[in-house]
Automatic annotation (TrEMBL):
It holds the Pfam family HEAT_2. This is Condensin complex subunit 1 C-terminal domain-containing protein. Gene3D superfamilies: Leucine-rich Repeat Variant. It comes from the Eukaryota. Residues 107-128 are annotated as: Disordered. InterPro entries: ARM-like, ARM-type_fold, PBS_lyase_HEAT. It comes from Porphyra umbilicalis (Purple laver).
Length: 368
C-alpha cells in the first residue's frame, strides 16, 4: 500500500491500482529528488489549479526538508488567496502531513521501503540525501498546520488543517483543537476538530485535559428533537466519544437514541459498541434493532455482538426447538423481547423469512 495526499485527506491505495505512469508521478517509489525543488515550487504556485495540485501531490514524497520549505515559505502556497486557491492550500496541508508521516517512518534517510502489496521497492538514493527527519522539521510542519487551523480565512482550509493534525496525532495541538471545536464560527471546522480529537484518543485527552467533558458539553447543547442541519456535527461528536470510550459519555450518547435523524441514530448504534453491554446499553440497542432507518438495525446488531450479546429465541417462546413463529398481536409487546422486522434471519437457524406476519422474538442475553 502507498499513501497519497489529496485535497480531501490522505488515502491509502494499492500501487498496483494506480496507472503505471500516473502512479509513479503521484507517489514515486524512491521519493522525489531535491533537484526538482525549483520546478515543483514554480508549479505549486501556478495559477492553473490542476498543475498546482499535481505538483503538491508529488511534493508530498519529497523526503527532505527542501520539500517542507517549498510549502511553508512565507508568501508561497499557503498564502495564496482566492476561491480556487482554497483547494490548493488544503492539498498543501495534507502534503505536509504526509511529508511528516514519511519522515517519522525513516524514509527521508532512504532506509525504508514503501511496503504493502509486494510491488514496492525500497527507498533509494533518489529520495535520500537530505538527511533524516529531525525535530526541527517536525516543528516547521506542525507550526504551519496550527497556523492554518486558526488564521486561514477559509473554513475548508481550517477544516483540512484540523484533519491533518488528527492524522499526525499531534497531541500538543489537542488544546488548540478543543478551542476550535467550541468556538469556530463554521460547523465544518468544529466537526473536523472534534473528529481529530477522537482520532488522537486517550493521548490527546491526557495532553489537553477534559476532552470528553468538552465533547459531552457540545453534544448536550444540541436538542435531539430538532437536530436539523446539525446532524453531521452531532454524528462527529458521537463518533469521537465512541473512539474515546469514556463511560462518562454514555448518558449523553443515549439521549440520541430516539432522535428523528437517521444518520445520528446510525452513529449511536455504532458508537454503543464502545461501551460495556450494561442493561441500559442493551435496552437502547433493543430499540435500535427495530429501527427502519437505513443501516441502523444492522449496526445495532453488530454492536450487540461485539459487546458479547447473542441472538436466542426466548425460552418461553420455544427457544429449545422449533423455528420462527407467527406474531399474535399484543403478544409481541413484551418488554423482555425484541420484535424484529418482517424481513429478518431466524436467530436460531439463520434462515431468512419474508412472510408478512412472521417475526423473530428475540431475547438479548449475555453470551455464555
Amino acid at each position: 500500500m502507498v499513501e497519497v495526499a489529496t485535497p480531501f485527506g490522505i488515502t491509502r491505495r494499492r500501487r498496483s491500482a494506480l496507472t503505471a505512469d500516473g502512479g509513479e508521478r503521484m507517489a514515486p517509489r524512491n521519493g522525489v529528488p531535491a533537484s526538482e525543488a525549483a520546478d515543483l515550487s514554480t508549479a505549486a504556485a501556478a495559477a492553473d489549479v490542476r498543475s498546482a495540485l499535481a505538483a503538491l501531490r508529488r511534493l508530498a514524497h519529497g523526503r527532505g526538508r527542501w520539500a517542507v520549505d517549498v510549502v511553508t515559505t512565507p508568501g508561497g502556497v499557503l498564502d495564496q488567496e482566492g476561491v480556487s486557491a482554497e483547494v490548493v492550500r488544503s492539498q498543501a496541508l495534507f502534503s505536509l502531513a504526509l511529508l511528516a508521516t514519511e519522515g517519522r517512518s525513516g524514509r527521508w534517510g532512504g532506509t525504508a521501503g514503501d511496503g504493502g502489496d509486494g510491488d514496492g521497492g525500497g527507498a533509494g538514493a533518489a529520495g535520500a540525501g537530505a538527511g533524516a527527519y529531525t525535530p526541527a522539521d517536525e516543528a516547521v510542519v506542525l507550526a504551519a498546520l496550527r497556523r492554518a487551523l486558526t488564521v486561514d480565512a477559509s473554513p475548508t482550509v481550517r477544516s483540512s488543517a484540523a484533519a491533518a493534525l488528527g492524522h499526525l496525532a499531534d497531541t500538543d495541538s489537542a488544546g488548540q483543537l478543543m478551542g476550535v471545536a467550541v468556538d469556530d464560527v463554521d460547523w465544518l471546522v468544529r466537526m473536523s476538530a472534534a473528529v481529530a480529537l477522537g482520532t488522537m484518543g486517550g493521548a490527546g485527552a491526557a495532553a489537553a485535559g477534559d476532552v470528553v467533558g468538552m465533547l459531552v458539553s457540545q453534544l448536550n447543547g444540541r436538542d435531539p428533537s430538532t437536530v436539523g442541519g446539525a446532524a453531521l456535527e452531532v454524528a462527529a461528536l458521537l463518533s469521537s466519544l465512541g473512539q474515546l470510550g469514556d463511560a462518562r459519555a454514555l448518558p449523553a450518547v443515549l439521549r440520541w437514541v430516539a432522535t428523528k435523524d437517521d444518520l445520528v441514530r446510525l452513529q449511536v448504534a455504532e458508537v454503543l459498541a464502545a461501551f460495556p453491554l450494561t442493561d441500559e446499553v442493551r435496552a437502547a440497542l433493543g430499540v435500535l434493532l427495530n429501527d427502519e432507518g437505513h443501516g441502523v438495525a444492522a449496526a445495532a446488531r453488530m454492536s450487540l455482538e461485539r459487546g458479547g450479546g447473542v441472538w436466542r429465541l426466548s425460552e418461553e417462546d420455544g427457544g429449545g426447538g422449533g423455528d420462527c413463529f407467527t406474531c399474535r398481536g399484543d403478544a409481541c409487546a413484551s418488554t423482555t423481547a425484541v420484535v424484529a422486522p418482517a424481513i429478518w434471519p431466524c436467530p436460531r437457524t439463520g434462515a431468512v423469512r419474508r412472510p408478512s406476519c412472521l417475526v423473530a422474538r428475540v431475547g438479548l442475553r449475555a453470551a455464555v
